[in-house]
Specification:
mainly beta; globular; 112 residues; 1 helix; two-stranded parallel sheet; 8 strands
Length: 112
């Protein structure tokens, strides 16, 4: 169940790849909207590692271990810890044109 939002900025992008050796079910996370009853946004100030791999970008919050991955769409995968909190994401399945444009933009911005 998604109950909070982590706000951060992208600084360093590392070249790496994320490989998950478990099953990847297709699912929609349940969002508990009552958590937002007394405030618009609940935030955690956490840092994360941002990676770029073979036609994939992904991030994982620092000091988190991934125990499950769920497919939200063909392009977006949520990474979960043992408590089923979303602690990262993978964006994948880019076509060549979109991937090349993304890499070019990141290079121009000095991010990679």
């Amino acid at each position: 169940m998604l109950t909070n939002v982590t706000v951060t900025s992208i600084n360093d992008i590392q070249n790496s790849d994320f490989i998950f050796n478990g099953s990847i079910p297709e699912a929609n996370p349940i969002i508990n909207i009552y958590e937002f009853e007394y405030g618009d946004v609940i935030t955690n100030n956490r840092s994360f590692e941002f990676y770029i791999g073979e036609k994939k970008i992904f991030f994982i919050l620092d000091d988190e271990e991934i125990s499950a991955m769920i497919m939200i769409s063909n392009h977006f995968f949520a990474l979960l810890n043992r408590e089923n909190d979303i602690v990262g994401a993978q964006i994948a399945n880019f076509n060549d044109e979109d991937w090349n444009a993304l890499v070019r933009n990141l290079k121009e911005a000095g991010k990679i």
